[in-house]
């Protein structure tokens, strides 16, 4: 069904204002947000929902709607709004997959799909990461720089090669990846901090910085330790208030030597079977 011409024209005019502001090197996020809020209402009046065999005018509307949603997704990253980013990506998927044969491919398609993968990874939503990955062509998974980057990071996570993840921050395919990598690094540090609290009674400031991939002497480690309620002694050693007396008693009661011997016995038996 045809939309009123003035509705389409108003939407396109407002979209051009949004794009002009967004393309400025120092664009105003609040101004872009104002445009996006208005355009969300306009989009409900256009052919932005999946339709079969769109005609030329509908294709134009779909391209405009897709461009608006892409700017919205990137805007949400700059605004550090994960929920808004996920909402924009949920809407963009119909353009990227349902209309793949009807519309010219967007230059932002794989960048945003890669960012979506990285967003899931940063929240430790690994099963959803693999579900989204299965939607992509194998060729793009293997060769597209925007997809290969989060795939490599997921592999490093599975390997426990955290140092490679920290180094990857210096080699991102887009500036927008930095935000989600920082979130991923925070998630990794939470896991490492939990392991440190269980493995040590106390740990030196230098060793803690090394394990957490912080530069020694920088305020990042002190901020991290304060969040986890670690206490720094005069000897520059951290102790952990989270380690209760019950936890300490349990760790001392754990028969580590017996467990190690049992594991070695299992390994020998497996070797004999093989």
From TrEMBL:
InterPro entries: 26S_Psome_Rpn12, CSN8_PSD8_EIF3K, PCI_dom. GO terms for cellular component: cytosol; nucleus; proteasome regulatory particle, lid subcomplex. Keywords: Proteasome. One of its GO terms (biological process) is proteasome-mediated ubiquitin-dependent protein catabolic process. Residues 83-256 form the PCI domain. It comes from the Eukaryota. Pfam families: CSN8_PSD8_EIF3K (PF10075). The keyword Transport does not apply. The keyword Lipid metabolism does not apply. Belongs to the proteasome subunit S14 family. Component of the 19S proteasome regulatory particle complex. The 26S proteasome consists of a 20S core particle (CP) and two 19S regulatory subunits (RP). The regulatory particle is made of a lid composed of 9 subunits including PSMD8, a base containing 6 ATPases and few additional components. Interacts with DDI2. Interacts with TASOR. This is 26S proteasome non-ATPase regulatory subunit 8. It comes from Blomia tropicalis (Mite).
């Amino acid at each position: 069904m045809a939309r009123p011409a003035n509705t389409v024209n108003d939407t396109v005019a407002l979209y051009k204002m949004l794009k002009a502001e967004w393309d400025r090197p120092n664009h105003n996020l609040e101004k872009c947000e104002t445009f996006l809020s208005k355009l969300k209402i306009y989009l409900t009046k256009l052919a932005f929902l999946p339709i079969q065999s769109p005609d030329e005018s509908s294709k134009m509307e779909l391209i405009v709607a897709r461009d608006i949603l892409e700017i919205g997704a990137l805007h949400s990253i700059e605004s550090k709004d994960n929920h808004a980013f996920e909402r924009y990506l949920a809407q963009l998927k119909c353009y990227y997959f349902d209309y793949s044969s009807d519309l010219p491919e967007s230059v932002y398609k794989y960048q945003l799909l890669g960012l979506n993968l990285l967003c899931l990874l940063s929240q430790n939503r690994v099963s959803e990461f693999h579900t989204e990955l299965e939607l992509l062509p194998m060729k793009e998974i293997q060769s597209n720089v925007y997809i290969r980057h989060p795939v490599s990071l997921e592999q490093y996570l599975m390997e426990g090669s955290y140092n490679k993840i920290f180094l990857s921050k210096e080699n991102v395919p887009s500036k927008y990846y930095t935000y989600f990598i920082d979130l991923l690094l925070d998630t990794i540090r939470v896991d490492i901090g939990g392991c440190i609290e269980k493995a040590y009674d106390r740990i030196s400031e230098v060793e803690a910085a090394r394990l957490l991939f912080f530069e020694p002497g920088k305020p990042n480690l002190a901020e991290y330790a304060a969040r986890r309620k670690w206490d720094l002694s005069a000897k520059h050693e951290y102790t952990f208030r989270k380690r209760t007396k019950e936890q300490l008693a349990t760790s001392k009661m754990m028969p580590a030597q017996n467990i190690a011997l049992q594991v070695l016995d299992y390994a020998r038996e497996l070797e004999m079977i093989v």
